[in-house]
Amino acid sequence: MRRTVIAGNWKMNMTPSETKAFIEALAPMVAGKDKCDIVLCVPFVDIATAVEAAKGTNIKIGAENIHFEEKGAYTGEISAKMLKEIGTEYVIIGHSERRQYFGETDATVNLRTKAALAAGFKAIVCLGEVKEERLSGITNEIVRMQTKLDLAGIPAEDLKNVIIAYEPVWAIGTGLTATPEQADETCGVIRECIAELYGAAAAEEITIQYGGSMNDKNAAELLAKVNVDGGLIGGASLKTDAFTAIVNAANL
Question: Catalytic site residue 95?
Answer without folding.
Answer: yes
